[in-house]
Give the backbone structure.
Amino acid sequence: MGGGASTLVDFGGGTGLLVRLLRDVGIEAFWQDEYCQNIFARGFEWDCNTKPTLLTSFEVFEHLPNPMEQISAMFAVCPNILFTTELLPCPIPQYNGKDTWWYYGFKHGQHISFYTKQTLEYIAKQKGVFLSSYRGIHLFSQYKVNPVLFATLIRFANKGSFWILKHFLQSKTLSDHQLLSATLP
């Protein structure tokens, strides 16, 4: 399945829950994840021939074994990447003892890549994009984004955003159901 002019790909989309929720409010979203089974967004897997407007990647960057290679692969898909990761504090926290940084996650061993603000700025410069950051949410973008606007949008994202989107967009729930029902044997 393809997408329209404003398409979102959730890279590392896990079970597909975010894609399903976004589609339910009317956003043309697609799933991609090479490590997880798509449960909630089946039928809406990303087609690599579709060029998205935005790529989201939540709770993925800290799991990348080859970050520059994998981030470059994301940029090959889309120059606008909204992602989350906690930034490594300065000075670098201890790796053991009572002051161990919680985000290291030694007990689960899944966090293997860490970034500083300077690292993200370096990546943005290398890729010819702008960086916006607020807390653990970051955006690589083709366009310069006002930092106050970015922080405001992030702070208020969970305070009625889906309701506002539902008011202005048309849900894809019924049309997705009809599309998928027509393709089933």
